[in-house]
Amino acid sequence: MNCTDIENKLVDYIDGVLSENETKTINKHIESCSSCKNVFNETNELINAFTNETVAQPTSNLKTSFEEMLAQEKKKQPKVIALQPAKRNSYKSVLQIAASVAILFTGYLLGGYQESQNSQKEIATYQTEQKQLKENMLLAMIDNSSPSTRIKAVNYTEELTTPDTKILEALIDRMHNDSNSNVRLSAAEALSKFTDSELVKTSLIQTLTTEKNPSIQVEVIQILVQIQEKRALDPMKKILEQPEAPDYLKTQVNIGIAQLI
Amino acid sequence: MKTLKITLFLFLCTFIAQAQETYKHSLSGIKKVKFYTDTSIDLTVGSSNELVISGSKNSYQNKSRKEKSKGLKALYSNGNDNTGKGFEVTKDGGTLIVKDLESFMKRSGFKVQLPKGIDVYLNAGNLGHVKVDGITSEIEIKTNIGDIDLVNINGPATVSTNTGTITAVFSTINQSNPISFSTATGDVDVSIASNTKANLSLKSTIGTVYTDFNFKVKKSKGLSPVGNPRKISTELNNGGVLISLKSTTGNVYLRKK
């Protein structure tokens, strides 16, 4: 063993962890080699110094202030609350499903309701348009040169529940002025459905003084008697004075007068 | 041989005489023909697209009188004879108007041939009757005391008379426009096929409605003490075009053909 090897094993030698042979060799070498003896002494001193040095204990004061600081720091921190996963209760999830179904269903109903409102509006518009169309068609047809077309137009008015004044005037015009007596008769019949209108009532009374066709006269008398129109009495009495009026017409007039009084 | 020649000659003579009695007018561009007369009209279907008027007897016009009027022109108060037959024929757009200028005493009826698809208006004045056979388009007829006899027609028809009776036999019913017959004191007698689709309106104010059809009549509510309209409204074979038959004092007959 040379000096370098000895120096490397000096720390282990001092700690006493080497084998007996190595310890005896190092003992003999240190006795004979002055330089290695110096290194041994210095190392021995250093290790002794480390071993003898006592561990510095922090004062109790320091300990307290540290713990206070820690507590203060803890207080300063915002409270963090851990999110607990919600308890999965079975009745709750049933409620949740029920609620979503209810929302869905309400949405469906609401949508359906709005849709039906819209479609009702659409139907209403369509119906008004259709009524307008029908009325225009009717007004065009009522002046047609073919008498059967005019009768068709007159009969269309029976489908109208509330014909406007234009239609009523057109019907009255047919009843008073049409060249064909069947058209005049049909118009009188159609007008009998709208006797709530004062316009229609006066026009029917007027027909009694102007119409010369007994079939139409009889028809109009029947309508006026049915609605108990007393103003028809005077023109009816005038028919009785007409020499050209046929007997059966006069009979009808007399029956009418009897029913009106 | 001689007798054959004579017969041929006579036949030719009558043919010419008949031809002379016939008046023809082209109907190109004409959709409707209107007749105004005081005598009876017998309308049938012809083969050509022409108006043919024939068979007007002149009871007062014997041979000697015919010679007297030779070279002269007849004058009428109610129009201008532009046919040489006592008719005034004028055109108004698509309508041909035939006006009979003779008195009903002198012309006791005439025959007319028309193509079947033409619209007709027949006004037989005060005394004339009307007969129509085979016209398939729209018919409008007006008489005062004359009877109206219609055969093989389809409608639409608008017929009115004061005291005349209306008789009609329909072949099939045109569903486009309504049929309406009315008479004040005459009867209305109509025959239609049993499968006809129609809305019926039958009414007699004083008389009675008769039929051999089986349909239910909607009863009017209760007994109406005043102004009972007495109108019978019903649908035939689920309904269709309106057929309105009315008589004020006469009866209404609706028959299965």
Number of domains of chain B: 2
Tell me what portion of residues of chain A adopts beta-strand conformation: under 5%
Order of helices and strands of chain B: HEEEEHEEEEEEEEEEEEEEEE
Largest sheet: number of strands, sense, barrel closure of chain B: 10 strands, mixed
**Share of residues in helices of chain B:** 10-25%
Give the number of DSSP strands of chain B: 20
Give the tally of β-strands of chain A: 0
Cα Rg of chain A: 63 Å
Instruction: Compute the average pLDDT of chain A.
Output: 83
Given the structure, what is the number of helices of chain A?
A: 12
β content of chain B, as a range?
35-45%
Structural class of chain A: mainly alpha
CATH class category name of one domain in chain A:
Mainly Alpha
Give the structure's gist in a few sentences.
Chain A is mainly alpha-helical and 261 residues long. In chain A, 75% of the residues lie in helices and 0% in strands. Chain A contains twelve helices and no strands.
Structure description:
Chain A is 75% helix and 0% strand. Chain A is built from 12 helices and no strands. In chain A, helix 8 packs parallel to helix 10 and helix 9 runs parallel beside helix 11. The model of chain A has no long low-confidence stretch (mean pLDDT 83). The relative contact order of chain B is 0.13. At the A-B interface, helix 6, helix 8, helix 10 and helix 12 of A face strand 12, strand 14 and strand 19 of B.
